[in-house]
Amino acid sequence: MKWSIYPPSDDTYFLLDNLPYNLGDSIAEVGCGSGVISLQVAKKTKRVLATDINFHAVKYLWMKAKAERIDTKIDVICCDLLNCLRDLRSFSSIIFNPPYLPCKWIEDPSICGGENGIKIITKFIDLLKELDHRNLRVYMVLSNRANIRKINRKLKNDGIKFHIIATKSLGFFEELKLYLLILQ
Q: In terms of CATH architecture, what is 10-183?
């Protein structure tokens, strides 16, 4: 299995460019990869918790936070999605740029979202429902290369309100969508 750190890419900058300025005081970034989003968000908020299943990504982000002298505003935890937390009540917003490409996870966990590109996303949505939360906003990037119809159906069936707040075409074969999930 190849454990690469997800580098900043089109979806990273699309997400950063379309996040609202005021995300609240306490933010969680799930699957932080290189940490670009967590580092930028930490400059605008009081606290960021960044998680990643890849120890190398978490270690890299921690070193970057220390180098930029914002390590007092960022906590990093190596865990699968948000499984390391008991609840989500202390967070205003969650940011998630999931692996959404339809490929096998064993090929590269930083980009592969399973056969339809939705395995990790579905697991994340199920976890959101399990963990206690209040008035939580979740910003999540999806690509039309994943089976978005199944994700939309799951969100509706699970009673999660959502809006697509931005889209970006990456050429003939891919369009990115930024979802806002509203959990009450």
A: 3-Layer(aba) Sandwich (3.40)
